[in-house]
Amino acid sequence: MLKLWIRDLGPRLARQTALVRVAVFLGLLVALWAPVALLIYGLGSYLRAEAAASTLALILLYLCFIWLLRRWGREVNRWAHPLSHCGLRGGSGFALSAVQAFAVGACAVFSLFGIEILLGWAALQMPDWPSVVGIAIEGLLVAIGIGFAEELFFRGWLLLELERDYSPSLALLLNALVFAIAHFIKPLTEIIRTSPQFLGLMILGMALVWARRIPKGSRWQRNRTNLGLPIGLHAGLVWGYYLVDVGDLTQLTGRVPAWVTGIDGNPLAGLVGLAMLSLLAAKLAQAAGQNKYA
Question: Does the first or last residue of the chain, that is N or C, have fewer Cβ atoms within 10 Å of its Cβ?
Answer without folding.
Answer: N
